[in-house]
Structures are given as C-alpha cells and as structure tokens.
Specification:
By secondary structure, the chain is an alpha/beta fold. The chain has two domains: about 10-355, 3-Layer(aba) Sandwich (Rossmann fold), CATH 3.40.50.12780; about 475-575, ANL, C-terminal domain (GMP Synthetase, Chain A, domain 3), CATH 3.30.300. The protein contains 19 helices and 29 strands. The strands form seven sheets. A nine-stranded mixed sheet has the order 2-1-11-10-12-13-14-15-16. Strands 4-3-5-6-7 form a five-stranded parallel sheet, sandwiched between helices. Strands 17, 20, 22, 23 and 24 form a five-stranded antiparallel sheet that branches. Strand 28 (about 515-520), helix 18 (about 530-545) and strand 29 form a beta-alpha-beta unit. Helix 4 packs across helix 5, helix 4 crosses helix 6 (about 115-125) and helix 5 crosses helix 6. The longest helix has 17 residues, at about 80-95. This is acetate--CoA ligase. One of its GO terms (biological process) is acetyl-CoA biosynthetic process. Keywords: Acetylation, ATP-binding, Ligase, Nucleotide-binding. One of its GO terms (cellular component) is cytosol.
C-alpha cells in the first residue's frame, strides 16, 4: 500500500526548532554546536555537569528537573538545585568508598529517584555507568557484572535479595553494593544508601573528565554469543543535546516524558541525559504500561513532548479512540517513537488521535543518539525512518551474493538505485559513536569499513533521501529470488482489522530457498480460525504479491525485547528447533 506524506502547516514549520532542513545540513558544524554546552569550569567536559550543575548554578536552579510519579500516583519533584546537591553527595560517597575515575558503577533499579541520583552522581565522580534491566534474572546480571568488571552496584533491597545475593561471590571485582532506603537488611557487607549518603564527606566537585573519557557502558544482547558492551564517552552529551533539539523538537520549558526502561540506551540517552541538558522537566513514571494510567500521566503532568515505543502505541490503538478522548491531551505538541520500525498505520493513528503524527527515528546502542529522524517541520512519510540528522552522513552500501558489504580493492560502494536495498552505513566520527566493545577489539574493528560504521541493518534510500528500514541483515528473507523485508510484511498484515501485531521470519524451503511465515496476534474479541487464516493469506497476496506470507500461525504472546521489538530470531529458533541464544533481554509475559 502507498502511504501519502503528511505535510506540515506553515505554523508548524515556523515554530519548530529545525525550520530549514537543507540549510541546517549545509551549515551544521559539531564544533559550533558545542558552544551550547558550558564545559567544566577548569576545562574538559562531563555529562552530569551539562545535565545538572550548570543549570543549578544559574537562573533555572529552582526549575523542576525531575517529576516522579510513584505506583500510587503520588508526585515527587526535584529542582535542578536539589538534584545537583543529591548527585554531588552521591559522588562524594563513591569517592569515600575508594572508587576511582573509570571504575564501573552498575545500576539495577526501576524508575525511582535514586536511579537518577546514582547515574548522575557516578558520572560526576568520573566513574563509568552501566545500567541493567531490573527485570533481569540472576544469570544475565552475573554475566554483565563480570564482563564489565563492576566495582559497585546500586540496587534495591528486594532486587538484591532476589537476584544478586546468590551470585555476588562470583563477581570478584564487585567491592560495594548500595541498596536504596535506610535499612541494608541482614547482610553486613551491603550499605544502605540513605545513611551512607548522610555520612558522606564534603562535595569535592565534578571529576576532571575530558570529552574522550569513558562515561557509559551499555550491554546489548548477542544473538548467540555473550552480550556486547558498547562503550561511550562524555563527549556523547553533545549528540544527546543536539538530537533532542532537532529530532524531538525539545525546548527548555517543555515537560518531557520518555517511557523507555532505564536499563536500555534510550532510557539513559533520552530518559535522563538529553532533556536535562536542555533544562526541561523530566517526567518519570514508576509503573509499567497501563493504557488509562499513561493517558492520565500525559494529561495530569501536561506533557509536551512524548517519546515512546511502537509496541506501546499499538497497544493503545487496541483501546480505540474513546479512552484517549476522555483525557485532556491538549498540552501535547510532539510525539516520537523508538525501539523498532514504526508501522505506517501508527503514524496515521497519531494524526487522527492527537492531531499529531508519530515521528519515527532510527538509531542503535552503538550510535548512542538518534541518527535518522522524521522532523517537526518536514513532511512525514509514514513507514520511513526519515532523514539523517544535521552532522550525520548516511548511505546505503552494496552487498555481495553472500550478504557482506561489497569491497572492490578495499573500498566500499554505495547503492545508486533508490529501489535497491543495501546495508545502512554512517560516516564514522560523530560525538556519540561508541568507542569500543568492552574487551573485544576485533569485534569492534569488524563494524567499520573504509571510514563507515556498518550498522547491520538493511535499508533503501528513496530519490528524495528518505531512508526505509527493511530488517536486520540476519532477518532479511531470500525467497524465490526476492529479498523480503520482514517489517514490510508485518506492516501490511497490520492493515487488516483483525490483526494487532505480527512477526515474520523466513522458513527453509527446498524450492524457494525460504518461505515467508507470519506469526499473528489478533485484536481483542477476534477468534483464531481456519477461515480467518485463509482470509489473511489472501489479504497478503493482494497487497504484496509474490513476497506475501505462505504460512500464518496465530500467536497471542509474541516474544518481545524490553525495548519493544518482536524477537524474530527467537521465533525462527523455535520454529526450526534451534538454540534460542541469549534471552536476557526477553520481556516478561504481559
């Protein structure tokens, strides 16, 4: 199906942060952009200073930095001045405990105020922050603590007792465990955070970090091997700041809500750092997804800019328009999505539901910040990732018959035909580009070729420069001479009124090489049946022709990562009876 672009009215173009995309791309310079940051008083750069202390020392000191909504919907607010005081106290505590610049401080917490204090305080101390999902089991926690050589862990008493105490002896580098609250419990070698902070020494200021000093370590799940630890530096804060301004249209007086889990890179880059660098108010909701509660948070907190996941938006779609219309969402100005490609019908649903299209954007843990986006004042092409950010150079590289990037005399070659897919690549050197895979130099080097970072994603670029995601290189299906992008098939199935979600894989076939098989979740009230299966197969053939699904299986519980992506590799493994690989990021059953 062809989706029409959603144009922007003149008023939107005038009011957006980025009003002239082509001019911004021509004139953008990272060094000039860096003047928006203050830098450390004695020279250098520190993420926490840019996010908190520089505001606390100026006219925004009393402005609300963090607005936290707890499970009972009680609201707690911290000003920039109070957040600066608490994070400095945490940094002093780490120094008292003997932690040094570069030591790894892990967090295993949900969305609670202590998380924000620990992350920013550790960065002030010059430590490297490594966030973990609070829903991880003991084994993925142990594995990451060992791989990252954790020096300290900040968690809750319940998470410590249930998931850490039994594996602590297997992490010899872990010298200190800090648990939230006033009582550390029965274990004498665990510190209760509240009294420890009260007894901490005086604030000695922000550590003298440079833009190239390590700051963040994000572990991403491998398909079969050990997790990869993507290392980012303090200089990444410049990309966080710029991309929030351009891709999220964020401003200092905005109330911003990023729903991402803090254990994921989005929950760190945009759930903590980016909005605070702008002096905005960051909303944090302790609870997990609930449609009525989410609409209530949007309405009661007067959220202006909302950054969420396609899975959550599709779940909201299931409730119909009546629920949303019962809340005052008039403060909402910009809606963006992240975590997986955004289906076109969700973009249009946003336009119908909120009077605002949902703006898709693309990036990875390795890129550290948004690289490609649909902007506020540029037409949205539903289903497209959008256009590269100013300061980012992207291209589509040709691949050989084995699916590897084509090299001729050591040089890569760009795809010239807009209809031809290839591997999405980015010119290396932007500020938030990861600097290493922790302890794996060869694995890191293999991500680059001829000055380009190879993303591992297959995409195409249309004649106007918009990028369209087809799938991960390992997900693209080769069927009877066709390259089939799973996302395109999934989006088409979602057009059917009975379908709530779909996951598509390639199934080996002696004749075609691979057949397209779809796993389909039905909308509430729809019953799986053989007539419906035949109807969906016919629907796919009408829309997609030769690349339509040949098999459809109903599945009301598709496996997702905690960032919202359908785990196609897990569907494929289960279908073919293969090893399921690393399941540490598998989302718990809804």
């Amino acid at each position: 199906m062809q989706w029409s672009p959603i144009g922007k009215p003149a008023s939107a173009r005038r009011s957006a942060n980025l009003t002239d995309y082509e001019r911004a791309r021509r004139e953008f310079d990272w060094d000039r952009a860096a003047t928006a940051l203050s830098g450390l008083p004695g020279g250098g750069l520190n993420i926490a200073h840019e996010a908190v202390d520089r505001h606390a020392a100026g006219p925004r000191a009393d402005h609300t930095a963090l607005r936290w909504v707890d499970h009972s919907e009680r609201v707690v607010e911290l000003s920039y001045a109070e957040l600066a005081r608490r994070t400095s106290r945490f940094a002093a505590l780490l120094r008292d405990l003997g932690l040094r610049k570069g030591d790894r401080v892990f967090t295993l917490l949900g969305r609670v105020p202590e998380l924000y204090v620990a992350v920013l305080g550790a960065l002030k101390a010059g430590c490297v922050v490594c966030p973990l999902f609070s829903a991880f089991g003991p084994e993925p926690i142990r594995q990451r603590l060992r791989l990252g050589e954790a020096a300290a862990l900040v968690t809750s008493p319940g998470l410590y007792r249930g998931k850490v105490s039994g594996i602590r002896d297997e992490v010899p580098s872990l010298r200190h465990v800090l648990v939230t609250g006033a009582d550390a419990g029965p274990s004498g070698d665990v510190l209760a955070l509240e009294p420890a902070l009260a007894a901490a020494g005086e604030d000695t200021g922000v550590a003298a970090t440079s833009p190239d000093d390590p700051a963040l370590l994000h572990f991403t799940s491998g398909t079969t091997g050990t997790p990869k630890g993507a290392l980012h530096v303090h200089g990444a804060v410049l990309a966080h700041h710029v991309t929030a301004e351009y891709a999220l249209d964020l401003r200092a007086d905005d109330v911003f809500w990023c729903t991402a889990d803090p254990g994921w890179v989005t929950g760190m880059s945009y759930g903590i750092i980016a909005p605070l660098t702008h002096g905005a108010t960051l909303v944090s909701d302790e609870a997990e997804f609930d449609a009525r509660r989410w609409y209530r948070v949007l309405a009661q907190q007067r959220v202006n800019v909302w950054y969420t996941a396609p899975t959550a938006l599709r779940m909201l779609m299931r409730y119909g328009p009546e629920l949303a219309r019962s809340f005052d969402l008039s403060a909402l100005r910009f809606v963006a999505s992240v975590g997986e490609p955004l289906n076109p019908e969700v973009v249009l649903w946003g336009q119908e539901q909120f009077g605002l299209p949902v703006h898709d954007n693309w990036w990875q843990t390795e890129t550290g910040a948004i690289m490609i986006s649909n902007f506020a004042a540029v037409e949205v092409r539903p289903g497209s990732m959008g256009l590269p950010l100013p300061g980012i150079e992207a291209c589509v590289l040709a691949r050989d018959r084995d699916g590897k990037v084509l090299r001729v005399d050591g040089r890569v070659r760009e795809v010239s035909d807009p209809a031809t897919p290839g591997e999405l690549a980015l010119r290396a050197g932007w500020p938030s580009m990861f600097r290493a895979y922790w302890g794996e130099q060869r694995r890191y080097a293999d991500c680059f070729a001829d000055g380009w970072y190879l993303t591992g994603d297959i995409a195409r670029r249309d004649a106007d420069g918009y990028y369209w995601f087809l799938g991960r290189a390992d997900d693209v299906i080769k069927s009877a001479g066709h390259l089939v992008g799973p996302f395109e098939v999934e989006s088409t199935l979602l057009e059917h009124p009975s379908v709530a979600e779909a996951g598509v894989i390639g199934k080996p076939d002696d004749v075609a090489g691979e057949l397209v098989k779809a796993f389909v979740t039905l909308r509430p009230g729809v019953t799986a049946s053989e007539p419906l299966r035949r109807e969906l197969l016919a629907f796919g053939r009408r829309r997609l022709g030769a690349v339509a699904p040949r098999e459809i299986e109903f599945d009301q519980h598709l496996p997702h990562t905690r960032s919202g992506k359908v785990m196609r590799r897990l569907l494929r493994a289960r279908e073919l009876g293969l090893a399921e690989g690393d399941l540490s990021t598998l989302e718990a059953a809804r």
